[in-house]
Amino acid sequence: MSLPKIARLPSARLLSSLHHLQHQHQQLPLRSIPPLTVPRRALIQSEYRRPGQPKEDKLPWQGINFDLRKGLEGIRKHFTLLKKEFFDRLVGPQGKPIMEHMLEQNRVVWEFRGPESLEEWTVSSDQEIGGQSEVYLKLGKNNNTCFLYGTLNSTPPRDGETRYSGYCSIRSKQPLASFDRKKHHDWTSFNTLHLRVRGDGRPWMINLATEAYFSHQKDDVYCYFLYTRGGPYWQDVKIPFSKFFLTHRGRLQDDQHPVWLDKVNTIGFTLGDKADGPFQLEIDFIGVTKDYAHTEEFAYEMYKKNP
User: What per-residue confidence (pLDDT) applies to 20?
Assistant: First the structure.
């Protein structure tokens, strides 16, 4: 019965019709309502996969190399590291006496004095997403420096999805303790990053990655600029940690806060100035220092949070 016909009925007949419709509605079987089809979304952001590349469906143990000799060497290595950690704690923080640790003003964290020093670093470029840039790492003259060189190419891959390309980077590896436990750099006693580099005039980006307390913060990186002069002369660069700003996957964040210097994982250098052609960067050492003349805590505006 349509609504206009119901409206023309008298009030008594209208009430009886409504009761009759309600009684019929209660006798009808209820249809099962299907659940809402919401697309699944992982709680942890997945790793980058090149567009068009199929996903590798492998079980966790399929990527493990079950080698008895390799296992014995690993056990010997990890127990040696465990022994060193135990005796270093008896001496003091990081194996140094407590007075030496408190009065320390300069510390060289990375220096390149042999082929084994390059094993602590890894290089990457836009070839991971189908780009054409090339980057290489080797020792400099007299095996006393780190020499990073290659060719930058900003031509994006023809996959129909990637719009930008053209970057090369070098990054230190995550320090590990015994049995592959995470180990962090503790730089709370220092306030300045000290570098001795020789470049070709290109601007680089210095990236500091710290330990993330939540899974969605694993791509948070603190960045600052490194401007090289070019030419045959070395330059000593000192950058206060208060100048580093927070980014997430290359995007500047509104909520800024200082670097967590007690849990620094890696340091990296990225080139992406969109100037195609060869490049080179030579690094002598990377260290931290305590500059008593620098009293700034943080150089950027911080929003007040509601407690």
Answer: 58
